[in-house]
Predict the 3D structure of the following.
Amino acid sequence: MNQQENTNAVVFNAPQETNHPSGCGNAEVRKHYFHHQLLLNPNATAQLSDDAWLISFKRRAERFADMLTFLEQSWVEGMPVLQKACFSYLTEDYIPRKERQQVIEAWSNWADFQFKLSRYRGLASLFLRYQRRMIQEIECLLPPPSAESQTIHQEGGR
């Protein structure tokens, strides 16, 4: 048996490079994303050679990344401030009992929702990294935007 010590460090959860073929204009990567486009939209009539479907797919990926960014934030950090506001409201003598009960029930439901949502922060972060990588690869597949199309996009068109 070999008595030498293993000096190789193993790091978990570290970002790792993949050997995914992501060269610009790579036909295999293009086919890969075309397949995903068809999975998301089976009624699509796009052709693999057309860039319009790729632009549409990129927009969807960007919107999904925006949603994941929203889900990635901590939902429970603001809870103490909201609790103080609700509790100070509930301690007022002029608040009818029925209204207090409604506020308590609404607060309980909202707090329960926030705690359940916060359980998925790690998963949202994982998918957000995946989406951002995918957007970068799609951008690499698209031709550089012309100055005219950048102006239209910045002004809120399309």
